[in-house]
Amino acid sequence: MMTLFILFWPLVIALVIFILRPANAKKIAFVASVLEFLIALLIVVQFDKSGSNSLAFNIPWIPSLGISFSIAIDGISLLLVLLTTGLVPFIILSSFESPAPKPANYYALIMVMQMALVGVFTALDGFLFYIFWEMALIPIYFICLIWGGENRAFITLKFFIYTLAGSLFMLVALLYLYYQTPGSHSFQIDAIYAAGRGLSAAHQGILYWGLFLAFAIKMPVFPFHTWQPDTYTVAPVEGTMLLSGIMLKMGFYGVIRWLLPVVPVGASSWAMTAIILSVIGIIYASVIAINQKDFKRLIAYASIAHVGLISAGLLTMTRIGYQGALIQMISHGILAFALFYICEIIFQRTNSRTIASLGGLRNNAPILTTVFMIVILGTIALPFTSGFVGEFLLLNSLFSYNIFLGVAGGTTIIFGAVYMLYAFQYMMLGKSSPQSSTIADLTSHEKMVLYPIVILIFVIGIHPDPLLQISEAAVSDILKVFSTQSANLK
Amino acid sequence: MISFILYKAILVVVIFGITLFVAAYSTYAERKVAAFLQDRIGPDRAGPFGILQPLADGLKFIMKEEIIPNVSNQGLFVLGPSIAMLTALMAGVVIPWGGSLTIGGESYTLQIIDLNVGILYIFAVVSIGVYGIMIGGWASNNKFSLLGAIRASAQMISYEIAMGLSIIALVMLTGTLSLREISQMQAGGLNGDWTFWNVVYQPVGFIIFLICAFAECNRTPFDLPECETELVGGYHTEYSSMKLGFYLFAEYINMFVSSAVIATLYFGGYNFPFMNDLGLDQNLITIIGTIVLFLKIGFFIFFFMWIRWTIPRFRYDQLMNLGWKVLIPVAVLNIFISGLIAVL
Amino acid sequence: MLTNRSKLVVKKDMTFWERIYLPAILSGISITIKHLFRKSATVRYPEKKREISAIWRGQHVLKRDENGAERCTACGLCAVACPAEAITMVAAERKKGEEALYREEKYAASYEINMLRCIFCGLCEEACPKEAIFLTDRIVSTDYGRGQFIYDKSKLVEPVDKRIDVSKRQTSAVLEFKKLKYFSHNK
Amino acid sequence: MIPIQYYLWLSAVLFSIGVLGVLYRRNAIIILMCIELMLNAVNLVMVAFSNFLNDPSGQVFVFFIMAVAAAEVAVGLAILIMTYRNTKTTDINILNRLKW
Amino acid sequence: MTLNLFYFLSFVAVFSALMVVFSKNPVYSALYLIVTLFAIAGHYILMKAEFLFVVHIIVYAGAIMVLFLYVIMLLNLNKDSEPHKSSILKFAAAICAGLLLIVLVGSLKGTEILVRAETNTAATIGDVKSLGKVLFTDFLLPFEIASVLLLAAMVGVVMLGKSEKEH
Amino acid sequence: MNALLVVCGLGFVSLVAEIANLKKRLHVAIIIGLIVAVGLVVADWNSEFSYYNNMLVFDQFSLTFTALIIAVAIFWFCISSPYFVGQPHQTDRSALVVFTMVGGIMMVSFHNMAMLFLGIEILSISLYVLAGSNKDSFISNEAAFKYFIMGSFATGFLLMGIALVYGATGSFDIGKITNHIAANASAMPDFFYVGLFLMLVGMTFKISAVPFHFWAPDVYSGSPTVITAFMSTVVKIAAVVAFYKIFAQCFEPVQTSIVNAVQVIVVLTVLVANITAVYQNNVKRMLAYSSIAHVGYILLAFVSNGDNSEGTLFYYLLSYSTASLAAFGILSVLEGSGGSTSLEVFHGLFHRNPVASICMAIALLSLAGIPPFAGFFAKYMILGMALDAGYLNLTILAIITSLIGVYYYFRPIVVMFIGNPTTDRAPLSMAQKFVVGFLALVTLVAGIFPDALINLLG
């Protein structure tokens, strides 16, 4: 029941906000999301780490087509649900200062978005997963479309079609799997797993690409990333936060839950290609990021680079890779949120995001500078920050997979340090430019958002074990599959 | 077989001749009736009482200069009156002109073909008769002709519907489409098989049919296609000599055939009262019947003329209103009531 | 109200019986059929001529006197009197030796009446001081061309050997009339 | 007795000519006539088959085709006249915009 | 005899059908179409479909074609104002129709294999009585429904044809 | 049959209303009458009737689609009152629309080629007139004319096909034809297949699938918008169902022989319609192409002909027609008296009339096949069937083209939400709002709970 509540509570709130259009929509949304987060925490507390959980809910939905409404929370889901429910209150809170026009619609859409995201992370039915996957797209599309920046019509549509295209291939792949299930077909994840694993290596390979395309576009992995920088730039900051903080993770979650266990043989045979793509993405995005003049774009490319590393680590299909990816997903979510928020703060005060036109912000905003520094350190994976744990694990797995790829992937840290510190140096230090003279330091409200984030960065960096434990059992389950499958094949 | 062909050939020729003869003398009758109704004498110079007048007219038509307008469509200009004449003559094929004569043990029916769809055949022929007018009017390349042609086509089509509907009621009564059978159903004498003429059962149908027949023949008061006060001569404005003669002739033949059809459908055809009670020879009865039929036809031809000199011409909108808003509804009502009575 | 048969137009709605028109048509055809049995009004013309009135005004004649001389003196009064302006004439002086031909010293060298214009009103006859022009009971005959209807003297002057009697038109009333003082020149 | 395939061939030819006319001409009213030609070819096939199969339903079907053809023509010509009334021109070029 | 008649009628039908398509003047087209219709009517007689023959003439020749001529005359469409169609299109049209013809005729090649349903009693099916029977028993519903069709057409034509000025 | 009679009766009532001076109440009367008709259909539910020697057979299939047609028509009537009330020829228009429905009901319930033919013609002839009912507008005239010419041309093909099939099978009765084919499947003469092909051509015209679609965009954009709405919903349902009945039920034994042809049609339809739609700036025209494209997807269902193809057909048509009706309904209101249906009328609609814009967005999203709306589910089922039948290429093509579809469906959405309002007029009446909202709701609910609808024809 808790799962159901976590899934539908945001929707209820969204409907209430949308229909009643209360004046203080943001407060209602905030309180509701905090409540949601508390429930999620409650689940964490009660969570049975051994794997068998009572958080499943399963009723038939469209019995004639073997589709059921089947949701459950296991370790992996829980991490992501936690991330989602945790970030949304922050996102809402961060928007308090600069309210969007028509706030009711805005917050309703955010709540619907949250519902869809939770749905994606909890669905255990292929069709349901797809529905939520697509449903997540609609609110974020409208958020970007209505409240976005310049040239938004074209860019958001590109984003929409791009991601939809990928997901439609996923749909075909799922359908194909569905028809491979025995008897009156079923979309249940177990049935899909069985169907996928029963296929020959070649078929698995094809399916692998069908599914991977959707996830790769969402993450995004090179060369499917072209929508991402534009969209991140044009979207309103809350939209960007949602996109980079949570929505990206849908792709990883898909890989973890709906790709690798489904077609393990295909995955292992194509893993090299996919990892190479990811690594190329890392280097490519980093190089571009160095040349970026717009700070928001820089963060966007940085995000591609980080994501590349996560995906490369995941695709090694090792325990360390999995765990690293999970930790890094959480960490990246927090860090990306923080980065974009700081970017927005600077933008609102100086009306500029161009690195070159800023400088010397440190003089007028010391606290901001400090927080920014900590966040950047987290991003470039300094030890004792959250970024370090994830990247370390990921690089570890990558090195063990292939030493050259490991080296190439490792450049992400070097490059990251280059462009981040470079940007930091220009914007915060250096000579004060006329535009940056208008800067003021963090308000109490902004502090309320950023301080917990800073604390989180350190907490996860120093003591990530509880998080790893949550997902431990679920990850082992999946890894078991890999070993048996590869054993079978050999 | 030979005798059959011979008999049919003779019959065709005879009926053809009679038709032309009647039509020719209809022109004479038209003028005479007009004269009498207007307290005049009418033509009386050619022959005694002017009975050679049709010959004189024919001669005149033939002798006149044949003018085909330069801008006209020459082929169609000639085709128009030909079609008019042809279709007019074709209608007489299915009309039963009398009973059957028995000569030398062989029975000869006084009818060219007894089609089982006789009424429809007449209908078909009448309906294609309008092409003569349309083609001629159009080919003349004259606006009056064209107007006449357009009027004719609209008028013919409009009134055909009411005509058809009025006949449907009759066919519901008779149960056959063959004209001979319809005639025979109206036969009878005193000895138990007494039947009235159809007009008794279908008075409304008869009136509608009659009015439509007037319209189909372009007779006054429905002579809008050729009304001289508006359209000079309507569709035959440009015509002269025998081609004009063909048009006029066709009109009189149509009148004759219409009268014959009316007589056959509603007035017993070649039957006459008490025909079976007189105890006469069958051949004699047949001959008398034929004469009676022609008397009936003569009466209706006279009636056509009578009406012509009584009722003024309709206006075009009145014509259409009458056709669509009066005759068709009444005809439908007539069908309905006939059906009701038949069922009861 | 020129005639006693005119009716006032009454625009009232027609009754049902009037609207179906059939009774009216029936009465119409009954009227026409009655005419069928009436005596025809036609006169078979060339064989049988219609009675004409005594003072019928037909084709003109230019009278000669008892000696056969033309009476007309080309005074032009007839032309003046003519409302239709149908009469034209050219006067000429009588030469020696023409006394037997023309009664007066002046005579009409040409005298034309356009019969297409003439309305046979008889004013020329009344105007004539010499009793030279009279209208007769003859009928102007048909012809083929318009030119033929301009009658000149060859058609108008009465032949010497075939005098035209106009006495019928000289009824007592006319004669009395002509005795009026106004017409004293006739004496 | 005429073999049935003769009739079918004839109808095929007539039908094709009708199709040709529809595609070949641009004059709307001639196109309409060519459609009538097509329908007549169909009628011929129907009657031929009906005769051949000794089954009157084919001929009955022809009645319906005729009724429909009459209705269609009436509607079509009404549309033509309406267009004419709207454009106030006798020129058939108004239908130029019909692209096919 | 019948076969010759068939050939004659067919020739007339096909020839005038071609003339319908290729006549420059709409009036000629209409007149040729009438000729075609009569030829087809002749075929009906050959096939002993008398009733259909008469109805065909009444409906097509008597009503439909008169309407055509009426409209051609009313709109004065006799001028050859037909827009020029590119010869490529015309060629394409001819190709299309030709292909259709080939397909149709080709498919009819195997017609000989059809066996006649019964012995030749076809003479009776074309007469009024048997047709009427079928029409009012088997096909009663379509017959009734056809009235809806005609009503709809009538309403539509009146609606389109009526001049709005009266309102 | 009862429903058919009621609908027929409504047509006559409409005509009588002109005489009896009941014009003002006519519109409401028709809606009530249609509701009664739906009630009658529901009363016959799950039973099978055949009428007049199997001329019409009302089985579950026919009843379901009859109900769908009438139900969609009810909503259509609710939206379209400005087209009728107070307009010239109000009664004629109502009567014609109702007669169109008579034709449509016949097309979903026929059991004899004669009924099919008459149904198609009743529907078409009324529609020709309705397409031109905007008598003063030249494009309306042109639409009527083009529709008429192409419609009757198609009828010619259809009839030739029927004639040849009749010759080969000796009957017009669907059941007898099927039996005859099944019994002599290998011995059918060649011309039977030609007849089949000609019927296919004729029906393809009627459902406006490529390559016989070219009339549709002009006709759809030329006709009065509400009539376009009617054409793309009620009429489309009838035509598609008739297509299905002929080729999937009547010619079931030889279905394989036409599947290849239909595959080509599917490929062409989805490609051409979707790509052309991208270039349209007129929303009405865009929706016209979209309706062609949807026919392509429906034909894909016919091609794959899975276990539940009837249910899929029903569900697809339901989802398509509700969304389409909502979209056209809003468009017709926005068009107003200006008559413009270009993209501009949608500019900033969200700020002028949020309800309309959200309903429009839902409708377009559903048409684009975005979950969780019904359109997605419909498309999903069709893709599933196609995949199941092994048409992987067609499925991929369908997916790519529906992505193209997303592009053009989103153009109105984009301008609705970000454009600046050109006028502040968005005069949706209360009833229209209600109906459009209801349709959007149906789209949503049918998308979330499709099971009951699919199993209506299980």
Written account of the structure:
The complex is a heterohexamer of chains A (490), B (344), C (187), D (100), E (167) and F (458). Chain B has helices at 2-37, 53-63, 74-90, 118-139, 143-174, 179-185, 198-201, 203-216, 228-231, 241-266, 282-308, 316-343, and strands at residues 100-103, 106-109. Chain B is mostly helical and 344 residues long. In chain B, strands 1-2 form a two-stranded antiparallel sheet. In chain B, a hairpin with a 2-residue loop joins β1 and β2. In chain B, α4 runs antiparallel to α5 and α5 (143-174) packs antiparallel against α8. The longest helix of chain B is centred in the first third of the chain and has 36 residues, at 2-37. Chain B is globular. The termini of chain B are far apart. Chain C has 187 residues and is α+β, with helices and mostly antiparallel strands. Chain C has a domain at 60-186: Alpha-Beta Plaits (2-Layer Sandwich), CATH 3.30.70.3270. The longest helix of chain C is centred in the N-terminal third of the chain and has 15 residues, at 22-36. Chain D has a single domain (4-97), classed as Helix Hairpins (Orthogonal Bundle). Chain F is mainly alpha-helical and 458 residues long. Chain F has one domain. Chain F has 20 helices and two strands. Chain F has a two-stranded antiparallel ribbon with strand order 1-2. In chain F, α5 runs antiparallel to α6 (113-131) and α6 runs antiparallel to α11. The radius of gyration of chain F is 21 Å and the shape is globular. The mean pLDDT of chain F is 87. Chains in contact: A-F, B-C, B-E, D-E, D-F, E-F. The A-F interface holds A 61-65, 130-131, 134-135, 137-138, 142, 145-146, 152-153, 156-157, 160-161, 164-165, 168-169, 171-172, 175-176, 178-179 and F 308, 311, 350, 365, 370-372, 376, 380-381, 383-384, 387-388, 395-396, 399-400, 402-403, 406-407, 410, 413-415, 417-418, 450-451, 454-455, 458.
> What is the count of β-strands of chain E?
0
The largest inter-chain interface, given as chain pair and residues per side, is: D-E, 72 and 87 residues
Give the spatial strand order of the biggest sheet of chain B. Answer: 1-2
If helices are DSSP runs of H or I spanning 4 or more residues, what is the number of helices of chain B?
A: 12
Strand content of chain E: under 5%
User: What is the radius of gyration of chain E?
Assistant: 21 Å
Number of strands of chain B: 2
The global form of chain E is globular
From the alpha-carbon coordinates, what is the Rg of chain B to the nearest angstrom?
21 Å
Protein traits:
heterohexamer, C: 187 residues, alpha+beta, Alpha-Beta Plaits, 3-stranded antiparallel beta sheet, two-stranded antiparallel ribbon, 5 strands, E: 167 residues, mainly alpha, Four Helix Bundle (Hemerythrin (Met), subunit A), 6 helices, 71% helix
